[in-house]
Each structure stands twice: as C-alpha cells, then as structure tokens.
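2024-03-11 09:14:02 INFO worker-7 job=invfold-0412 stage=load source=structure_tokens
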C-alpha cells in the first residue's frame, strides 16, 4: 500500500519587536539573498496581484532599496508601525516548483505576529530537490540569520492535523529552531540531531529522511521530542518581548 503523502512549509516567528522601515528592509534583503542560495527557484520574485498576468509584470530585485520603496506604500504598512509583504516565484504550478513567501516585520503586537513563511513544493520535481535535510537546513538558516526569530522550522501539515488538540507555538516539526532565549535543549532520542545555527540558536533535525506525518514511527518520535522540550521548559512563552527601534 502506497504511503500517504504529506505537505510542508517553513516558518519562523517572533514576538513584539518594533523596527523601522530601514531595519526591516535590511532584514528582508538578507533573507532573500540567503534564500536564493538554497535553490534556483528562489532567485526570481514577483509582487502578488489580482491575476497571474498582472503579477508577472511585477518582477523585482529584492534589495534594501526596493523594500524601502515598498514599505512607503500603504499596501505594505500595518498602520503606523510594522510592515507586511508577500511575493511569488512566478512558476505556473506552485505545487511543483517555487511557491510564495510572506513576512510581517516590525509589529508591536505580542505573540507571533512577526513571522516569515515560505510555502514548499508539494510535487516533483520540486519535492525531490528541495525537501531534503541539506536544503531545508539552509532555508531555516536563511530565516534565522535574517529575522532573528524566537522559534520556527519546517512543519508537516499532516502531523499538525493529526493532533487531537491544536499544537500551539512553538510548533513541532521535521526541523525545529529554538532561540537560546527559550532555554537549553535537553538530550533527545535518536535519530534527532541538534546543530547550532551560527551564534543564533539550535536547530533540531528529527529525521534524516523526509518526515511524514502519516507515518506512525515519525509521529511517535515527534510526540516524544515535544514532550522532552516541554518538560525542559522550552515550549513555554519566553520571558520578555523585544521592543527595539532600529
């Protein structure tokens, strides 16, 4: 019997951190630059629009100057504080290649209001090329280095749907990033691997193969990891929210 398919997304989250357009534009430029190194499909970007035809006329270079220009528009502003933006790779079939990226930066709301999310391919050839630990490690690294989040990772839609109760943030994923602000990562069961993300925090890789939220062995491992992190206090709300204007 064929194994049921799963789908995935990469995301990072951080709480209240007020930042200027200058600071958010600098972070966005860094993110898109690092993301472009992860896969060729992430080298071309378009603003979103009401139609595909119109969107394909809105290609842009993700530079600091470009984002500063975008953030002057009412469309991308969150009132007086914060910015929200989304872009598309321009591929005709997002399930096979490319996808969408969105971020909210500089918001003063408490919780996970500030975030960056990348949709990942759902079908070949994109899945075979992108949904691997080496590539996804670099995707998460790009997010962490650029946005300096509190937590995030690469998440299985099937695993999240399988929980009897909603899994609150930090979510449990195939890959999980945790800032040192949350505490020290405890010993975890095999085959989980823990790696540093530069000087930012810890990346937990639950399985070397593709995690599948329909696979009982993977679900049991994810549940065990979550229980260990919860016992160590890493899933509790981190102390203090940042309020920085840069």
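2024-03-11 09:14:09 INFO worker-7 stage=emit residues=246
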């Amino acid at each position: 019997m064929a194994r049921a398919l799963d789908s995935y997304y990469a995301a990072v989250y951080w709480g209240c951190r007020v930042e200027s357009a200058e600071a958010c534009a600098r972070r966005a430029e860094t993110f898109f630059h690092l993301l472009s190194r992860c896969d060729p499909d992430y080298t071309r970007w378009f603003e979103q629009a009401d139609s595909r035809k119109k969107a394909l006329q809105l290609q842009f270079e993700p530079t600091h100057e470009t984002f500063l220009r975008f953030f002057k528009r009412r469309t991308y502003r969150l009132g007086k504080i914060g910015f929200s933006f989304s872009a598309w790779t321009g591929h005709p079939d997002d399930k096979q290649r490319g996808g969408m990226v969105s971020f909210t930066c500089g918001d003063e709301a408490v919780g996970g209001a500030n975030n960056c999310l990348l949709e990942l391919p759902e079908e070949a050839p994109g899945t075979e090329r992108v949904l691997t630990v080496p590539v996804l490690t670099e995707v998460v690294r790009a997010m962490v280095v650029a946005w300096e989040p509190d937590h995030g990772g690469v998440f299985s839609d099937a695993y999240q749907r399988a929980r009897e109760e909603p899994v609150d943030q930090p979510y449990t994923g195939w890959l999980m990033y945790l800032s040192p602000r949350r505490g020290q990562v405890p010993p975890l069961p095999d085959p989980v691997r823990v790696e540093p993300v530069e000087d930012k925090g810890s990346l937990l890789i639950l399985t070397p193969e593709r995690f599948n939220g329909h696979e009982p062995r993977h679900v049991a491992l994810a549940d065990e990891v979550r229980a260990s992190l919860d016992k160590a206090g890493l899933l509790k709300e981190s102390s203090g929210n940042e309020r920085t204007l840069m």
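2024-03-11 09:14:09 INFO worker-7 stage=report msg="Residues 21-36 form the longest helix (16 residues)."
2024-03-11 09:14:10 INFO worker-7 job finished
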